[in-house]
């Protein structure tokens, strides 16, 4: 009886979470030109065709992908360096830095967005230059993606044998080469996971982008502006494309983590033997 209740509870949770997304995906293929967008009129791909013929949507897509790639690369490099630095600290400073790192993740996004907007406006007024736009968006996305990269890389650093790096140096390997040949291969799965997570978060972000974008349009902002004018089936098609892209990236992350677990288990068994 308890198993049946737990399964029913899980099914209800999944129903409430994914039923709206399923409805959205189904009606993105709806063949209708009438005012009623919730009446099924037949299967059609015309909304996807119109979606990819829309110049404004393609421009927003280009901006979104460009920002996501640069933000993922920037936050991955900076986050990996920060993780290495935090891992080398003593216990108390490391704990303080971890609390500082975790705070942006639990901080409301609207607070982060408004504070970054005020920071960028203040910096422009102080140093001159362009107002909010592509540069401020990239900087904001790197900022909120950093903690996720750090938390992805740190566990790999803790699992690594700290004597490997010193042993490589004792054998005559320069510090830089020792890092690239010994440390980097060990933490590479965490780096890749952090990069994919940063890319996914950047594509999906709306709140922080809304406050720091200026006149630059990203896909989430464009979807919001479309909903303010009218509810078009193009929104369903665009949202479906975004959902599919994020889903694929999350599947890749989970598959990588699943493949990494047996390696960890084998490594632990080898060390214990």
Key traits:
273 residues, mainly alpha, MetI-like fold, 0% strand, globular
Shape: globular
Question: What does the main sheet amount to?
Answer: none
- Please state the structural category: mainly alpha
- Would you report the number of β strands? 0
Oligomer: single chain
**CATH level 1 class label:** Mainly Alpha
User: How many discrete domains?
Assistant: 1
Rg, nearest Å = 23 Å
CATH architecture: Orthogonal Bundle
Instruction: Determine the number of helices (DSSP H or I, runs of at least 4 residues).
Output: 11
- Determine the N-to-C terminus distance: 43 Å
The chain-level mean pLDDT equals 83
Residue share in helix: over 70%
CATH topology (fold) name: MetI-like fold
Strand content: under 5%
Low-confidence stretches: none
What does this structure look like?
The structure is a single chain. The chain is mainly alpha-helical and about 270 residues long. It has a single domain, classed as MetI-like fold (Orthogonal Bundle). About 80% of the residues lie in helices and about 0% in strands. It contains 11 helices and no strands. The protein is globular and about 75 Å long. The mean pLDDT is about 85.
């Amino acid at each position: 009886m308890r198993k049946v209740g737990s399964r029913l509870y899980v099914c209800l949770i999944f129903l409430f979470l994914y039923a709206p997304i399923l409805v959205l995906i189904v009606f993105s293929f709806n063949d209708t030109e009438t005012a009623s967008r919730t009446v099924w009129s037949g299967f059609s791909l015309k909304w996807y065709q119109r979606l990819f013929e829309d110049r404004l949507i393609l421009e927003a897509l280009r901006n979104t992908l460009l920002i996501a790639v640069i933000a993922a690369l920037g936050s991955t490099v900076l986050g990996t360096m920060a993780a290495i630095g935090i891992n080398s600290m003593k216990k108390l400073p490391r704990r303080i830095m971890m609390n500082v790192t975790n705070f942006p993740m639990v901080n409301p996004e609207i607070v982060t967005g408004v504070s970054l907007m005020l920071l960028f406006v203040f910096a422009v007024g102080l140093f001159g230059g362009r107002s909010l736009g592509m540069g401020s968006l990239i900087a904001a996305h790197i900022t909120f993606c950093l903690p996720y990269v750090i938390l992805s890389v740190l566990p790999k650093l803790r699992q690594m044998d700290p004597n490997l790096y010193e042993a490589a140096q004792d054998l005559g390997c320069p510090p830089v080469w020792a890092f690239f040949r010994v440390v980097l291969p060990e933490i590479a799965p965490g780096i890749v996971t952090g990069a994919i997570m940063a890319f996914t978060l950047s594509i999906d972000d709306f709140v922080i982008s809304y406050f720091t974008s200026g006149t630059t349009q990203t896909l989430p902002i464009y979807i919001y502006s479309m909903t303010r004018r009218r509810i078009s089936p193009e929104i369903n098609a665009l949202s479906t494309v975004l959902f599919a892209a994020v889903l694929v990236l999350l599947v890749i992350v989970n598959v990588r983590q699943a493949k990494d677990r047996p390696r960890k288990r084998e490594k632990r068994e080898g060390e214990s033997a």
